Amino acid sequence: MRVWFGLAAGIVTAAAAGTLLADAGMETTSKVAANTAMAKARAAATQASGASAAAVPARASDGLTYTASGQVEEPVNYRDWVFLSSGLGMTYGPAAPAAGRPPLFDNVFVNPQSYRAFMSTGRWPDGTMFVLELRRALSNQSINNGGYTQGDIAAIEAAAKDSQRFADTGGWKYFEFGAAAVAGESATPQPPSATCYTCHSQHTAVENTFVQFYPTLFAVAREKGTVKTTYDPNRKVQ
Question: Is the pTM of this model over 0.85?
Answer without folding.
Answer: no
